[in-house]
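Support reply, case 0932

Customer input (verbatim):
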Amino acid sequence: MGVQMMMFGGKVQEIGASAVLEKIAEIGYHCVEISQIPMTPENVAGIKDACERFDIQVAACSAGLEPLPRGGDALASDFDKIIDDCKTLGTRLLRIPMLPFDYLGNRQKALDFVSRAEDMAHRLAEYDIELYYHNHHHEFEKYDGKYLMDIIRDSTERLGFELDVFWIQRGGENPVTYIRQFAGRIKLIHLKDYRIKLDLNALAGEITLEKVVNAFNSAVQFAEVGQGSLPIKEIIDTGLECGSEFFLVEQDDVYGRDSFDCITDSRDHLIELGYEDWFTKP
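Our regenerated output:
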């Protein structure tokens, strides 16, 4: 059981990677996935040192297949560095966070991207590194009656998948039954809950149709594990049956809360579900 470091990008800038990882370990998580953290030599060295001192395992690192608008390393331009970072941090798993923005909604561009990702997965395998693709909801757009996500799965063999249960739900599928369709292709699952919550501040004052429409459209929220509607225990147990090795708590938006408090609430619920042993040191 681990956490996704994208939740702590601001805190890494503020107090440093070592202090963030120490706090994560104190809360009880001894596994992290690295994403949206600048992989500078200083940060990589700091993460490595902190993981050794606080008994933290790096589940996976992240990289774009090609450069992303928000920056970060890309396999097309930083291949050797990415390999070195994975080796330094002791992980054999590398994840692609999403399709390039200008490929969204374009079936042919998406398939071209996936073909290159499959080729890259074979190339990475020569270095004993496995490549995984992380889904959002846009992969549940249908082309000729078939989800893009299913097209990606069925047109690849080496490429693995990191399934995000929130985005599967947002895409209109049941996360439990959908995970089963990827048995043997997953080692990573993102755990976050799916909450409906109307923003009453948006409805303050005179009620107008525009305000109501905006409140309706923004009612879906990312929630701490246990604070939403997803069957978390069934998701975890199904993930285990289907080959997942890492379950990573993530919350894309914490709505003004402290990220450490959010992962603490998620931990407490996971312990209530019977996963207390997963929060002990490896």
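We compared this against your earlier run and they match. Two observations from our side: Residues 14 and 38 are 13 Å apart (CA to CA). The chain has a mean pLDDT of 94. Please reopen the case if you see a mismatch on your end.
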